[in-house]
Amino acid sequence: MSSGMKVLCLRTAGTNCDRELVDAFERAGAQVELWPARRLFDHPEELRRFRVLGLPGGFTYGDDLGAGRIFALELRAFLGEHLRRFVDDGGYVLGVCNGFQILVQTGLLPGLPAGELENEAQRAVSLVPNDSRRFECRWVHLRAEKSRCRFLRHGSVIPMPVAHAEGKFVVRDSATLEALRRNGQIAFRYCTASGGTPSYPEDPNGSVEQIAGICDLSGRVLGLMPHPERNVTPFQHPWWTRLPEREEGEGLALFRDLVEAARS
Amino acid sequence: MAHFLAWRIEVAPKSGAADPGAQSLLRAARSAELAPLRSLRSLVLRRGFLLPPQLSRAEIDRSVAALLRDDVVEDVAIEAPNSAAGSSATDRTTLTLYVRRRNGVMDPVANSLTRALRVLHASGGKDLAGVQTYQRYDFSFEGAPGQPELEAARELARRGFANETIEELLLGAQRPEPHPPAPPYRYQRLEIPIRALDETALAALSTRLALALDVAEMRTVQSYFQDVERREPSDCELLTLAQTWSEHCKHKTLTGRIEYRENGGAVQRFENMLKETIFAATQQIDAPWCLSVFADNAGVIELDERYGMTFKVETHNHPSAIEPYGGAGTGIGGVLRDTLGTGLGARPIASTDVFCVGPLDLPREQLPPGTLHPRRILEGVVSGVRDYGNRMGVPTVNGAVYVDPAYVGNPLVYCGNIGLIPRDKIRKQPERGDLVVALGGRTGRDGIGGATFSSVELHEESEVVSATAVQIGDPITEKKVADLIVRARDRELFHALTDCGAGGFSSAVGEMGEELGADIELQRAPLKYQGLSYAEIWISEAQERMVAAVPPTKLAELLELCREEEVEATVIGTFTGTGRLRLSYDGQLVADLAMSFLHKGLPKRTLQATWSAPELRDPEHAPPGDFGQLLHALLRAPNICSKEWIIRGYDHEVQGASVVKPLVGPCMDGPSDAAVIAPLSDSRRGVAVGCGMNPRYGAIDPAAMAGAAIDEALRNIVCVGGDPERTAILDNFSWGSCKRPERLGALVRAAIACREIAVALGTPFISGKDSLNNEYRVGDRTIVIPDTLLISAISVMSDVGRAVTMDWKSAGNALYLVGETRRELGGSHLLLVQELGTGASVPRLDPTRSRATLRALHGAITTGLVRSAHDLSEGGLLVAAAEMAFAGRVGGSLDLRSVPRSSDCERDDWILGSESLTRFLVEVAPEQTAAFERALAGCVHARIGSTDASGRLILRGLSGATLLDEALEGLQASHAAGMEPNLPLQAGKRRA
User: What is the mean pLDDT of residues B593-615?
Assistant: First the structure.
């Protein structure tokens, strides 16, 4: 069943959620390769061999200049047009946590069309320090919104952990937010266990409109702060000892749907 | 003074935008008991950068846009290198304070920025060295600030966000200017004549060079150079001997000859105390699943037929006392390198941490001079572990915080790490002709003398004299090394590997080359900056470095891998087969020692140790008037209350392996007994990790403390489903100065107890570490820490699906108390929270009974008969029942008349507060009670109550009357409120 569906996960100095991301894709039936970024920078044309690019979480280069900044700079400098072309040719990209921050820093997200921003050189959105000013590792619930994203089941509520200090989603101005809404780019919001409107700590960082993840205009590039790849086995849920026996964690469906969408 | 030019860039939140960091710092400043700060109007935080003047304005603009400023939320000010503006542009009501790293102190942000600038401006080929960073704080007052405001701001910085050991504080008109480059080093071989010295002169020489060697040891060195080498030693040779023979590296106190006398009785003689107690127990148990014990950087046990698990716990006490953030960060960094340096390299998969500090509410006027406030220390060490551990991607899954007034001058910071290693990669042996390859971080002047620093007592001036012994870690450099090592190990690119810990290259090369000998060319070692002498290179303890023995045929492949992983690798010498350690600098021989003398020449000391039972009595005390109040007080006690603010700051989920988390239950606020991880994605095999510690018992009897700590660690393991018969333990003794016979005697008594108990329980020790000299001298007073034995436990589980958590699961289940409750109140929290002193009746372990009970309960858990289990420790039955109830949001009632107890345990408060060992509160579904009772046959147990839907915890006393009736929400609130963090003062510090 996995024939041909190839996923490339990239890691660099400070990437540290690569194992669980690879594991989640493999459980979803994909063939996964994990490369040090340097190898792809040496052979950028190799990117074409893959259908999905996964950017795992971590602290790339320590997040020393802001989350994901330096690795995003490298992706732009060393992959250049190869990355843009990968997406334009139908490739899928998933960025989790630091991977999401990197996608925002590269500009692949939100990837608003020219004209929707006053000045193209400016960034439209950002991920800034949590309102609590602390690193927060806790379980939250996400609601998949009706969006352009090609592989999310709208309305589903998925428990998964967050683990970040800079995950508060902010926008440049209300016009940007309006554009994201209008374009169907808001993919995930934090919510209560029953899908309702959250307060802290259900919304762990104070994001604008509780936004936890967004996609680009193609619907194939998705970034989110929480970690669906850390809820794929029966035993990762924080109170699985109180639940009926289960086959898998609620996050695995996202990977299966992504792999399925990318296969076709 | 020479003046160096730089671009100055300052980034701040957009004006008008909220800055939660500045706001919380402002709140903290106003409430900091510093009168001049009450009139603070506002506070602005800025990140500052000094960039090399070679960059053009256009390049600076690009750098700012791509790297320094987040234009969605931030503004920037850019000042050209030659601009005339010489001072901060602020109005007269504003006081500006700058904080920046001292010259030569590790600054990972500057390193990352330098690297990113090279990527961004690749075509330029300009020299981009000299990037520096700082933080700027603008305090705006109602009126113009004067000297009192300036002093108050400086004091606030010292208390909260700056540490002058590693940082400069600049106030008023001073601005950070670029540090001048270090002066170059000019080679000069130093010879230290010792052959003609008498004992007084030898002692003086040891002090002058900070060798920390005693006269007998100096005599041994002297005769070696007199009789064997027939020449004077070089400075480098003396320093090498001092490092290798240091207490930190050799543990010469505990491995020494000891004459021990108990209660004035006959003398018991040890040739090597540790070997005859702790190691002897492991040899006697001889468990086949112990794969490597006391032989490597960590102990190794079997996980399955493919993998072993490594475990090591280290202390980093003295550095953390002086610079908590850096001390704890390099503590976790060091123990992670122990994992990486075990066998041919293990992959770190989980960390543990235990902190012992003074009272968090200690009034400032009671703080001994020269110490940091316990709250500052705790926040600092937590931040240090958080920032290092999170960046390494290693989950911190288990830990504890222990508060006692005697930790005020000398806190304890234990950092542990567990690794995963293929079983065929556990053995290592360098071969003749292998290259000595340094991997990872560069060598700097930081951390020189750490091994000898940790081997003496702290005192008021430690902060001043030990600045170089304290370091800031760079976790990303270590993460790269970790990624490299796992790949290189699997490709078999080296024959041996170890970390550079205390003693730096001198210890790493010295240990690896013990059999073969080595030739090292010191000028080859890559340096952070110029100016280091050959001796400094050799003994620097700069972080994030490893040494590998690489066969020449594999070097090219290793270097290619290093390029891909961005790890610096440098050949610095060869393992020779000559049995000599030869060091050269630019072709000049600077040391030439026989390895045999270096490793076997240390003369044995004979130390005296005594222990006498103290004269103590249990206090006479009336039963408490209000058991509800007592319970709330216990739940708020610092050693019992929730540590959620610490746990949530650690990424305890990274690697996706966590099965039982530190906080459990439907609201994720129940304190788990131990953690369970499932490290292999293709297997349900698991690892349980727990710990045990109770220093309050040690004051009554160190042997009882040892029994309690081992039993507690095992109870914690069993509660989550770990197998007590497949559990290994680690010992960490943190003690005061063992030069005093009674301190050493207490340790010997604890070690003897460890041997007896471990053998009786069948629980082997696989690794351990001691930290002596944990004292603080102020004037003529010495504050000695309580004798503190930490026992860490690791256990293998065949199926993580059988794991159990401590939260009550549902109404209508039976509650069993397993184990006998005795009138054992000595050292208990029942006495502590009622301020009734220490007492005498310390809990005693019956190892035979303990083993049978642990085994029986484990059997019940693995056959699925247990819904929840929690061990009884601090606060006894009272606290355990409350924690299980609020964790599960399930009520319950208990009847003390059913509690199995000794006849003298005849009061409700004794039954509830007794800390008797090997006891558990267990929840069993009604249809399984018969099977559970059969499983526990032969072990003391009784059904004492049941869970219900009342939402309350209800206890009935011996009279049959209701003793306590409390709502679960209130209990949870007290537990949560115990240790409110005061994070604002840390908030301005780092972005993450």
Answer: 95
Considering A164, A229, A237, A250, which one is annotated as catalytic?
A229
Inter-residue contact B543 to B333 (CB < 8 Å): yes
B203 in the same domain as B56: no
CB contacts, 8 Å: A64 with chain B: 108-109, 111-113, 476, 991
Nearest-angstrom CA–CA distance, A96 and A102: 9
Contact A129 B563 (CB under 8 A): no
**Residues of chain A falling short of pLDDT 50:** 1-2, 117-120
Residues B536 and B565 in one domain: yes
- Asked if residue A233 belongs to a domain, the reply is yes
**Residues B46-76: tens digit of each pLDDT:** 999 999 999 999 999 999 999 999 999 999 9
Residue A199: CATH number of its domain: 3.40.50.880
In a domain, B469, yes or no: yes
In a mutational test of the A interface, the residue from B69, B648, B682, B808 whose CB has the highest number of chain A CBs within 10 Å is B648
- pLDDT above 70 coverage of chain B, percent: 95
pTM value is 0.95
Name the average pLDDT for chain B. Answer: 92
The residue type found at B375 is R
- Chain B (89-128) residues lying within 8 Å, Cβ to Cβ, of chain A: 108-109, 111-113, 115-116, 119-120, 122
| Contact B804/A at CB under 8 A | yes
**Mind spelling out the 3-state secondary structure of B390-455?**
HHHCCCEEEEEEEECHHHCCCCEEEEEEEEEEEHHHCCCCCCCCCEEEEEECCECCCCCCHHHHCC
Question: What is the Rg, in whole angstroms, of the alpha carbon atoms belonging to chain A?
Answer: 17
- Final residue of a structural domain among B564, B586, B602: B602
Q: Annotated catalytic sites of B, by residue?
A: 248, 316
Residue B892 burial (CB < 10 Å; 0-12/13-18/19+)? buried
Residue B362 CB coordination number (10 Å): 18
Q: How many domains does chain B have?
A: 3
Which backbone phi and psi does B657 adopt, to 5 degrees?
-105, 0
Boundary (domain end) residue, out of B190, B222, B250: B250
* pLDDT tens-digit series, residues B954-967: 999 999 999 999 99
What ipTM does this complex have? 0.95
Residue B301 neighbours by CB under 8 Å, 6+ apart: B289, B290, B291, B308, B309, B311, B726, B728, B766, B794, B796
A236 residue type, one letter:
Q
H or E stretch including B202?
A: helix B199-208
Residues of B496-505 as b/e, b for ≥16 C-beta within 10 angstroms? bbbbbbbbbb
Domain of B460, CATH number, reads: 3.90.650.10
B197 φ, ψ to 5°? Answer: -80, 145
DSSP A46: G
Domain containing B130 equals: 7-180
Type of residue numbered B914: S
